[in-house]
Design goal:
single chain; mainly alpha; Herpes Virus-1; 3 domains; three-stranded antiparallel β-sheet; 3 strands; elongated
Length: 333
């Protein structure tokens, strides 16, 4: 994906011969990625995003139910249902791109100014997901106030009047730009946007004004380079070193699913706290075995929770193994 993709949503339909199992698994994977944006700061359309997350969560529960209680192999899944799910797959992918744009570092002020366009995209996606017109996505009131403040500050700049610092800080807080380094990213993005072809005079003037606003914020409001930047880098290095120590003590057998004895790919944890590969434990449930294979305990709930932390360790382990083998191969040449 190009770094210049902004408010465009490249997505293609799944192939016509896709199996229902593959389609449901893919929908669940994308839904999980969509819900991961809940913890991020939205520079615009916070209300629309919150409403969308609610519906994605409800759909995710339905997909999990379909996967656990899927039809027997001897029965075919209705073609119309597969087509509808394929259409939903495209919508999910477009929604993921939209959420990436709404939370993208460096594009926060740009996305706020384009909040009307963002709301239109949310409206279209919402209609396609829910097949209803009862809910209308629209710019948040706080977005409108922040945009009005930005244009008012532009007017003050033109008349060489110093804007109220509290009003500028309210705008920065709304879009999540709170440090000098964030301003640098915003300026870099806006400059790149100016270089994009087919920009008319008005668009270039607006982008230039946005750059001027952020430059003012960086030099006057936020002042100086972030004091905590070096400390943050040190903490990140310590985290990487800690992860390396954990990985170094692992053996391949530690990464095998207790059921299939194969390397786990999609790790999930049961209510007992034990981790399994999703496909293996799902087969157990489908066969009527609603127990934890390692403890034998009858499960109250068959909800599978992704074990993100262990999954990251597994992926990091194999990345280091590949890197180690690559270096070893180069030395032997």
């Amino acid at each position: 994906m190009s770094d210049r993709r902004i408010l465009t949503f490249p997505a293609v339909h799944p192939c016509e011969s896709i199996s229902i199992t593959t389609l449901i698994n893919s929908l669940l994977e994308i839904a999980g990625k969509i819900l991961s944006f809940k913890s991020k700061h939205f520079s615009t359309s916070k209300g629309n995003a919150k409403e969308t997350f609610r519906h994605i969560h409800n759909l995710m529960v339905i997909f999990q139910e379909i996967r656990v209680r899927k039809l027997p192999a001897c029965r075919s899944f209705p073609r119309s249902a597969i087509l509808s799910l394929s259409e939903l797959h495209v919508i999910f992918r477009k929604l993921k791109f939209l959420l990436q744009d709404c939370t993208r570092e460096g594009a926060k002020l740009y996305m706020l100014i384009n909040s009307d366009q963002v709301s239109s995209h949310f409206q279209l996606i919402y209609l396609l997901i829910c097949r209803t017109r009862k809910y209308e996505a629209r710019p948040d009131r706080d977005d409108k106030r922040a945009i009005d403040s930005v244009y008012w500050i532009f007017n003050l700049f033109e008349n060489r009047i110093k804007p109220n610092q509290d009003e500028v800080l309210r705008v920065l807080d709304h879009i999540g730009v709170r440090t000098w380094s964030y301003c640098v990213k915003e300026i870099g993005f806006l400059r790149e946007e100016i270089r994009v072809e087919k920009k008319d005079k008005n668009e270039i003037e607006l982008l230039s004004s946005l750059i001027g606003f952020i430059c003012y914020c960086r030099c006057v409001i936020l002042e100086g380079i972030d004091e905590d930047e070096d400390k943050k880098e040190e903490e990140e290095e310590e985290e990487e070193e800690e992860e390396y120590v954990i990985i170094r003590g692992l053996k391949v057998d530690d990464l095998r699913c207790p059921i299939s004895l194969e390397i786990m790919n999609d790790l999930v944890v049961l209510e007992t706290g034990h981790t399994y590969d999703r496909s293996s434990i799902t087969k157990c449930f489908s066969a009527g075995n609603i127990t934890c294979p390692k403890t034998g305990k009858t499960l109250v709930s068959t909800v599978l929770v992704g074990n993100v932390s262990v999954k990251q360790v597994v992926h990091s382990y194999f990345e280091q193994e590949i890197d180690h083998k690559s270096k070893k191969k180069k030395l032997s040449v």
